[in-house]
Amino acid sequence: MASGLDSFVNHTVSIITSDGRNFIGTLKGFDQTINIILDESHERVYSTASGVEQVMLGLHIIRGDNVALIGLIDEELDNRLNLANMKAEPLNPVVH
Amino acid sequence: MLPLSLLRTAQNHPMLVELKNGETYNGHLVSCDNWMNINLREVICTSRDGDKFWRMPECYIRGSTIKYLRIPDEVIDMVKEEAIVKNKGRGDSKGMRGGQNQRNRPAARGNFGGRAGKAPGQGGGNRPFQKQKPKQ
Fold this sequence. Notes:
heterodimer; A: mainly beta; five-stranded antiparallel beta sheet; 1 helix; 5 strands; globular; B: five-stranded antiparallel beta sheet; 3 helices
């Protein structure tokens, strides 16, 4: 089955879930319902009070129901970001 | 690699399951199925706010209520590539279904045909039945 996600496998991706969280990790696999295997993952927690906080998480299976967006990360650009100085409003959950 | 293959490989390993309602369940995975329904043993349930805890020996979680599962890192290195075996299985089962359907349909037609064929032959049987009708 052809899917646009094939080209993301074994690359670093950013996943935004429908509860408004942002997971970064290596996409190791997916299936037809967009269940996702995310390896060496961490969560980026955004706030307006302080810089972006990174929480190490490890190996995850994220259920497809909960996935809102999957983006390919340009690692070179990502490494240049100074997350400690970045402030942003946290995302709101998706309202169904 | 398929997420459900990884989950199957994680059987007998500890894991954290977060549900869509925010509750988390920590326990050892006993079994899982193709819908991500899972059985956990020695479970600690934590409320959404993390302020209440429940211990239970066993629980069953419907797959559709899961947000994500957190699995020990080493499990991903233990996944056996089952893709080929699974495809064979699916192919066989499809073949089986097709075969059963094809067998059932002619059999069903045959049965009806048989009855229809006998009915005219039992004309003698039909007449008394028709006679009985006006009586009743």
